[in-house]
Write a structure and sequence with these properties.
single chain, nine-stranded mixed beta sheet, 10 helices, 13 strands
């Protein structure tokens, strides 16, 4: 089993911070976001390699980060998708297709996590639950408990067996308060469907759109987790995540965000 970390975005909402630093390499709680994600991935014994896909602008920075990590955990390979700006970016689904082809991952089960997706649930428990579903894909879900808030996310409705019945991006009338997080599991048999999805002219952005396309075609399940989840989209969310993780590490809170 392999893991893919999506880190090729340009994070324009966080300019000027992300003009020179990739969002997943911004520090929260004194460590790069990507470190927190790799800690969680390292809990999954089945994962024997991590593939980080980024862009040409930040590929060298990610390579230095990967080289500095040391021998702990599965090896990390950094892939440059060749893009240089918002104008030529591949999109998240496009980057999944890119790294699957480049690294030869079509014959693998995949865990795909966004590089700005911070959470404290166990990926090992998630994978174990998913293995019990047979040949299926899955998305991790967080119940935000608020209809107005969930409209900002992909919204999932589950059947009694936890199979996803519907997946809608930012619906006006949500069927539930279950928000899809950017932590996906794709069965080997479904990984090859990424290329078909793109060949049909579907959007290369937002992995949730690919999941929504999968739902009527193959079994896709929703794993509802408790605990903290942060989708770092803007400066306010970044500061909040930083202070929460600083508190856990015994560090003082800050009024404004500053990278360490």
């Amino acid at each position: 089993m392999k893991a893919v970390v999506l880190a090729a975005g340009y994070a324009t909402r966080l300019y000027p911070l992300t003009l020179t630093v990739a969002k997943p390499l911004l520090t929260v709680g004194g460590r790069p976001m990507a470190d927190h994600i790799l800690d969680r991935i390292g809990e999954v014994d089945e994962i024997d390699a991590v593939h980080v896909v980024t862009n040409r602008k930040f590929a060298d920075s990610f390579q230095r980060w990967a080289d500095a990590r040391g021998p702990e955990g599965p090896p990390v390979t950094v892939h440059d998708d060749g893009t240089t700006s918002e104008d030529d970016r591949l999109g998240a689904v496009g980057d999944i297709a890119f790294v699957v082809a480049r690294a030869g991952l079509a014959g693998e089960d995949l865990l795909v996590v966004a590089g700005d997706n911070l959470f404290d649930f166990s990926l090992a428990a998630y994978v174990g639950w998913w293995r019990g579903k047979g040949e299926a894909s899955a998305v991790a879900l967080h119940d935000v408990g608020d209809v107005a808030l969930v409209r900002r996310y992909g919204v999932v409705a589950l059947g009694p067996d936890e199979r996803i019945e519907s997946f809608e991006e930012k619906p006006a009338e949500p069927r539930s308060t279950l928000a899809a997080t950017a932590a996906y599991l794709f069965a080997e048999a479904h990984v090859g469907l990424v290329a078909r999805y793109l060949a049909e002219g579907n959007s290369p952005d937002q992995p949730g759109r690919f999941v929504a396309w999968l739902v009527p075609r193959v079994p896709v399940y929703g794993y509802t987790f408790a605990g903290d989840w942060r989708d770092i989209g803007d400066a306010e969310q970044l500061l909040d995540a930083d202070n929460r993780l600083r508190a856990r590490s015994g560090l003082p809170a800050r009024d404004t965000y500053e990278p360490d």
